[in-house]
Amino acid sequence: MITPVTLFKSLADETRLKSILLITQEKELCVCELQHALDESQPKISRHLAQLKQIGLLQDRRNGKWVYYRMHDDLSGWVNEIIALALTNNANFLSTASESLFAMGDRPTRIASCCET
Question: Which residues make Cβ contacts (< 8 Å) with residue 55, sequence separation at least 6?
C-alpha cells in the first residue's frame, strides 16, 4: 500500500512526475516513447520507471523484448484521484512532452516497436 509520503516523494522528481502523467494520459507507454517525449536517455527513464514500479505505482507488461508500463491496477482511489487532478490541472507542465510524444513518427503498435534498435 502506498502512503502519502511515498507517493509525494516519488512525484517530487520531474522525470517521474511527467512519466506518471504521460502514462495516465496515454494508458500505456513503452520506454522508447517516454524517452522521446521527455528527451532523456534510456537508462535514466528505465531507472525512474523501476523506482515507480518498486513502490507499486506502475506495473509492466512484456511484449517480446519490449516492456510497456501502465498505472497499477490495485491503486487506492485517493492515489488515482491525486494523479488525475494533477493531469487535469497542469496541462502546461506536460504540454511539451505531450506534443513530442504526439509527433513521434514511429510509435509502437504494441506488436512491433520503435524499441527494436
Answer: 2, 6, 10
Return the bridge partners of 71, or none.
58
Structural domain count of the chain: 1
Q: How far is CA 71 from CA 39, 53, 61, 117, in A?
A: 21, 9, 11, 26
CATH number at residue 29: 1.10.10.10
What pTM was computed for the model? 0.89
Mind listing the pLDDT tens digit for each residue in 12-41? 999 999 999 999 999 999 999 999 999 999
Select from 2, 16, 1 the least CA-distant residue to 86: 16
Q: Taking Cα atoms as reference points, which of 69, 61, 51, 64 lies closest to residue 10?
A: 51
